[in-house]
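Troubleshooting log. The previous structure file for this entry was overwritten by mistake, so regenerating from the original sequence record. Sequence copied from the archived sheet and checked twice against the printout by T.R.
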Amino acid sequence: MRRMIPLLVFLFFISIAGVALADSQVSDFRCGSTLIRLGDSKYKVEHSCGPPFGREETGGGFHRGFPSGDWSYTEKWTYNLGPRDYVYELSFTAGDLVEIRRGGRGF
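Regenerated output below.
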Protein backbone atom coordinates (compact mmCIF):
# COMPACT_ATOMS: atom_id res chain seq x y z
CA MET A 1 0.00 0.00 0.00
CA ARG A 2 2.82 2.42 0.82
CA ARG A 3 4.22 1.94 -2.70
CA MET A 4 0.89 2.95 -4.22
CA ILE A 5 0.72 6.37 -2.53
CA PRO A 6 3.43 8.04 -4.70
CA LEU A 7 1.81 6.60 -7.82
CA LEU A 8 -1.62 7.89 -6.80
CA VAL A 9 -0.20 11.33 -6.01
CA PHE A 10 1.53 11.40 -9.42
CA LEU A 11 -1.68 10.40 -11.23
CA PHE A 12 -3.64 13.03 -9.31
CA PHE A 13 -1.31 15.83 -10.41
CA ILE A 14 -1.30 14.61 -14.02
CA SER A 15 -5.11 14.65 -14.09
CA ILE A 16 -5.21 18.20 -12.67
CA ALA A 17 -2.73 19.36 -15.32
CA GLY A 18 -4.94 17.86 -18.04
CA VAL A 19 -7.98 19.75 -16.78
CA ALA A 20 -6.00 22.99 -16.58
CA LEU A 21 -4.81 22.62 -20.17
CA ALA A 22 -8.30 21.88 -21.48
CA ASP A 23 -9.34 25.54 -21.22
CA SER A 24 -6.43 27.93 -20.97
CA GLN A 25 -5.73 31.51 -21.86
CA VAL A 26 -3.15 32.01 -24.61
CA SER A 27 -1.65 35.12 -26.20
CA ASP A 28 -1.80 34.03 -29.85
CA PHE A 29 -2.85 31.32 -32.28
CA ARG A 30 -2.13 30.45 -35.88
CA CYS A 31 -4.88 30.77 -38.44
CA GLY A 32 -3.57 29.44 -41.75
CA SER A 33 -0.27 31.25 -42.27
CA THR A 34 -1.21 34.26 -40.12
CA LEU A 35 -0.41 34.61 -36.43
CA ILE A 36 -3.35 36.16 -34.56
CA ARG A 37 -2.29 38.07 -31.43
CA LEU A 38 -3.84 40.10 -28.66
CA GLY A 39 -4.51 43.63 -29.87
CA ASP A 40 -5.40 42.58 -33.43
CA SER A 41 -8.57 44.04 -34.91
CA LYS A 42 -11.77 42.14 -35.70
CA TYR A 43 -11.15 42.96 -39.35
CA LYS A 44 -7.69 41.31 -39.34
CA VAL A 45 -8.99 38.20 -37.57
CA GLU A 46 -11.95 37.75 -39.93
CA HIS A 47 -9.82 38.53 -43.00
CA SER A 48 -7.21 35.94 -41.93
CA CYS A 49 -9.45 33.22 -40.46
CA GLY A 50 -12.76 33.70 -42.22
CA PRO A 51 -16.08 34.05 -40.44
CA PRO A 52 -16.21 32.54 -36.93
CA PHE A 53 -18.03 29.29 -36.15
CA GLY A 54 -20.04 31.20 -33.54
CA ARG A 55 -20.49 34.84 -32.66
CA GLU A 56 -21.95 36.12 -29.39
CA GLU A 57 -22.67 39.73 -28.59
CA THR A 58 -21.87 40.15 -24.92
CA GLY A 59 -22.95 43.78 -24.65
CA GLY A 60 -20.93 46.61 -23.31
CA GLY A 61 -19.24 47.84 -20.22
CA PHE A 62 -17.05 50.52 -18.77
CA HIS A 63 -13.49 50.07 -20.01
CA ARG A 64 -10.70 51.82 -18.14
CA GLY A 65 -8.30 51.39 -21.07
CA PHE A 66 -9.91 54.21 -22.98
CA PRO A 67 -8.52 57.68 -22.28
CA SER A 68 -11.91 59.01 -21.34
CA GLY A 69 -13.20 55.86 -19.64
CA ASP A 70 -15.86 55.23 -22.29
CA TRP A 71 -18.55 52.62 -22.60
CA SER A 72 -17.32 49.91 -24.97
CA TYR A 73 -18.94 47.12 -26.97
CA THR A 74 -17.78 43.52 -26.34
CA GLU A 75 -18.16 40.42 -28.46
CA LYS A 76 -17.00 36.77 -28.34
CA TRP A 77 -16.14 34.75 -31.42
CA THR A 78 -15.57 31.00 -31.55
CA TYR A 79 -13.28 29.32 -34.07
CA ASN A 80 -13.41 25.54 -34.40
CA LEU A 81 -10.22 24.60 -36.22
CA GLY A 82 -11.06 20.92 -36.61
CA PRO A 83 -10.11 17.64 -34.92
CA ARG A 84 -6.36 18.19 -35.41
CA ASP A 85 -6.46 21.54 -33.64
CA TYR A 86 -8.38 23.28 -30.87
CA VAL A 87 -11.46 25.40 -30.38
CA TYR A 88 -10.55 29.03 -29.70
CA GLU A 89 -12.77 31.65 -28.08
CA LEU A 90 -11.78 35.21 -28.89
CA SER A 91 -13.02 38.20 -26.90
CA PHE A 92 -13.10 41.64 -28.48
CA THR A 93 -13.58 44.98 -26.75
CA ALA A 94 -14.16 48.04 -28.91
CA GLY A 95 -13.06 46.02 -31.96
CA ASP A 96 -9.71 44.88 -30.54
CA LEU A 97 -8.79 41.33 -29.48
CA VAL A 98 -8.35 41.36 -25.69
CA GLU A 99 -8.47 37.64 -24.77
CA ILE A 100 -7.87 34.28 -26.45
CA ARG A 101 -9.01 31.10 -24.70
CA ARG A 102 -8.10 27.66 -26.00
CA GLY A 103 -10.61 24.91 -25.32
CA GLY A 104 -10.57 21.24 -26.13
CA ARG A 105 -10.00 19.59 -29.49
CA GLY A 106 -12.17 20.74 -32.35
CA PHE A 107 -14.61 18.61 -34.27
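The chain has one domain: 24-105. Archived copy saved in two places this time.
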